[in-house]
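RECORD TYPE: inverse folding
INPUT: structure tokens
STRUCTURE:
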């Protein structure tokens, strides 16, 4: 069913990725036309869809990509720790190109897939909110800090609203012990993005993205105005995970830090 205040033309970047595929379906009722973009692997357009192959690092291509849209859901980019060069091109140059295009084309709102890795060096014993100083756990996390800061600037300077989603772990199921805290179900992801798109005033908001998990390291009171109420919980899979996935050693980053193994990834040879 169509959303009562659907966007006229909503752009989704990263549409070929794991979450992009989920959002391609989930965002359908939220826009009269969905413009889907990635640099690889796009399925042909279905009804009310447009498909645009575009590398986010290509400034003039991104200008064309953004022309005519009234909202952006930005999920494209490198999604794991990597060498600096690809992160620089996809996540840093890419997010700059996107905001410059949004400014030039008068786009009012962006939903930006940030990541829990902007605060990955906090311990799992700590509970933090969106006002806690960032403690990125790698170059990938640093690139997401850049996206968050850039979007803050584009709001303060140009009034473009952004909701930055510090997504935990959004996958079909709970794969390890850490995900008992970080899990965000696909259904809750779609609802979180819907809240970010349709809450009347968001200014510049940062929200953590996790389901209603018993163990959570994140206090989302600063984004309560989004009205996001998760329906799912990692706890449904707790018994299975505890029976089948060994508890990491006490000093294993997977058990110590919120960012888990990311804190020990790399460095990669350039
Ligand atoms: P993914 O790696 O499956 O998808 C990312 C997509 O971005 C890919 O299809 C890739 O081709 C595209 N992409 C990369 N560089 C590009 C470029 N230069 N130009 C155009 N497209 C480019 O990742 P996933 O899991 O779908 O994540 C989507 C977004 O959500 C990413 O930004 C990721 O950092 C973020 N995120 C995801 C989490 C998760 O649990 N899945 C957790 C936290 C953040
Ligand atoms: C992320 O930011 C990644 O994009 C995703 O693949 C997962 O690794 C997730 O964080 C996580 O922390 O589990």
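DESIGNED SEQUENCE:
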């Amino acid at each position: 069913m169509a959303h009562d205040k659907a966007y006229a033309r909503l752009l989704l970047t990263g549409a070929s990725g794991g979450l992009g595929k989920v959002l391609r379906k989930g965002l359908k009722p939220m826009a009269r036309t969905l413009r889907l973009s990635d640099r690889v692997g796009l399925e042909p357009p279905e009804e009310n869809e447009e498909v645009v192959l575009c590398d986010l690092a290509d400034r003039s291509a991104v200008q064309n990509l953004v022309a005519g849209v009234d909202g952006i859901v930005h999920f494209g980019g490198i999604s794991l720790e990597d060498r600096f060069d690809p992160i620089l091109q996809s996540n840093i140059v890419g997010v700059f190109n996107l905001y410059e295009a949004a400014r030039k084309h008068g786009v009012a709102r962006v939903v930006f897939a940030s990541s829990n890795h902007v605060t990955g060096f906090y311990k799992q014993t700590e509970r933090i909110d969106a006002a806690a100083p960032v403690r990125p756990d790698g170059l990938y996390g640093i690139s997401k800090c850049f996206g968050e800061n850039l979007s803050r600037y584009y709001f303060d300077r140009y009034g473009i609203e952004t909701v930055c989603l510090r997504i935990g772990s959004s996958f079909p199921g709970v794969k390890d012990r850490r995900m008992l805290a970080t899990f965000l179900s696909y259904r809750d992801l779609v609802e979180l993005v819907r809240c970010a798109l349709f809450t009347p005033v968001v200014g510049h908001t940062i929200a953590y993205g996790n389901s209603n998990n018993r163990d959570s390291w994140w206090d989302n009171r600063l984004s309560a105005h989004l009205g996001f109420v998760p329906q799912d919980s990692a706890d449904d899979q707790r018994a299975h995970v505890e029976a089948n996935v060994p508890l990491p050693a006490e000093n294993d980053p997977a058990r110590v830090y919120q960012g888990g193994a990311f804190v020990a990834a790399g460095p990669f040879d350039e």
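NOTES: The chain has a mean pLDDT of 97.
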